[in-house]
Amino acid sequence: MPSDTKFKVEVFPSVKPKRVPKSVSGELKGAASPKAISRMKKESVKCPVVEREVAFLVCFACPSFLRRVTGVVDCAGGQGPPKEWLIG
Known about the structure:
Elements: E1 7-13, H1 22-28, H2 34-40, E2 43-47, E3 52-55, H3 56-61, E4 65-69, E5 72-75
Antiparallel strand pairs: 1-2, 1-5, 2-3, 4-5
């Protein structure tokens, strides 16, 4: 697992929540509480790897995600989320 932070990405509330694929939601059920997942569905990030806005849950499940501290995500860059996760 990469440990070098290549990008620092700010998390922001979405005007309109992005759709999250069921495969991502199902993968995260054991990793976070339902309340936390519900809150994270309403957040987005401007992904530097795919160069577009994605739902935070997609970022959270991405192989390049390292950590989130006080509204900032540390991203290792390199490998982005799988293409089937990128809806709309």
